[in-house]
Each structure stands twice: as C-alpha cells, then as structure tokens.
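ingest -> validate -> predict -> emit
validate: passed (alphabet ok, no gaps, 253 aa)
predict: started
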Amino acid sequence: MNKRYLILFLLGFIFLFFIFRNELIDLFNFIKLNVIEIQTSISNEINSIKNQSIKIKSLTKENLKLREKIAYLNSLLYNCKDLNKLKYIKDSNLILTKTISYAKLPDFSEIYIDYNPKGKLPQGLVYNNLAAGIVAKKVGDYSLAYLNSNKNTSYTVYILDKNSSIPGIFYGKIDTIKYIPKFKTIKKGDLVITSGLDGIFYKGAKVGIIENIKQTNLYQEAKVKLFYNNLEPSYFYVVKRKIKGGENGFNKH
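emit:
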C-alpha cells in the first residue's frame, strides 16, 4: 500500500516537473543568483570590515604620533612663554641657561641646569636682574644649582641706605643677612643688592628688602623679603666669573 502511494507520488512529481519545468528552472536560477549575491555581499562586508580595521589601526598610530607632536609643540610653547618673561641681556659675562629638572624631590630648591662650567664655582644665577641662587658644582655636562630658598646658598650683599652701602652675608632658606656691622643703621624697607665682592655675582643684582632686624652681641641680622623665590624655575643667566687684578669685571644691569 505504501509502495503504491510512493509510486503515485513520484509519478505525480515527475508529471508536475515536466509541466512546470521552466518555472522550476527559473525559480532555481533565481534562488541561486540570490544566494550568490548574498555570498558576495557578505564577502564584501567582511572585506570592508577588515579594511576598516586596518584603517582604524593606521589612524590610531597616526593619532598617537600627532599627540606626541602636539605634546612636544606644547612643551616648546611653554618654554617660549617662560623665555619671553626673561629679559634679554647681551653681555659676555652672562650666560643663558635653562632648568633641566629638580635635583632632589621633594626639595624644590635644588635644580640641574643646562650649563657646563669652564671656570671656578660657585657662580651666581640671576633672573631679570634678580639674584636667584648660585651654581654650586658640575655634574657631568650639567650643573647643580641652589636657589635662594636652599640652605647651601650664601653670597655677599649690600644693604642700601641714603648715604652708604652696608655689607653683610645672605644665607638661604632662613632668608637672613648676617654679620651686618652693629654701628651701621639699617631699617625696614631698605633695598638689598649683591655686592659682587665675592666673585659670585656682579654688583647690583636685586635680592630683596629688609623685613625685620635683630640685634646680637657683635653684629646685626636682618630678615629679607626676597624678590625672587620661584618654585617653578625656568631660564636664568649664569654670572661668569671674571676676576682681573683682584676686582670683578662685571657690569651693573
């Protein structure tokens, strides 16, 4: 019974196939073309995704390079801004230098500067005719410098009044002038400049003004409000030591 139905089904299918052969062939071709189109579309999409991935990787690399260039240009811009604040002085006794890094964090008063000394140390550091510190020692091709706020900084100064220049020695960190002659009259607000007599600075770089005065047994001491006390050092001039006949060969600026 089942065989008879199967035979009838096959005969019916063959009969229908011959009747609708062209339609079936067209349907088959239509399905085949659509399958090919779908395969082609999927393949193109996959290739497009691969190309986009390659392009994204390439753009990412370019973006990183551009960021590095932007960071470099920004650093140059900041350096130019810092340099723009520094007054240009053309003098063979002054050598332009820049800060490389802090020397011993968290101490912000010791810095490395791009300066390779040829002469004796210490040498003065000035910023816009303000005494900023001293170049202390050579370190490789660079130098270690102490700013005014460092305990190792010291240099000779004058306290100016109307009639005379009163000598003393400035000490960093405590911002104090010691060994001021007791018989000399000083007062709050007096201007303090470098004396130049120690060969570290030229005469006349501004240090600060007197804030407080203390009397000791043999000398006077004076607290100084500094003009330069910057924790973000950038550019300086190094005062080149130039001793001739026992005197400093510096010009006043």
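The first helix runs from residue 2 to 19.
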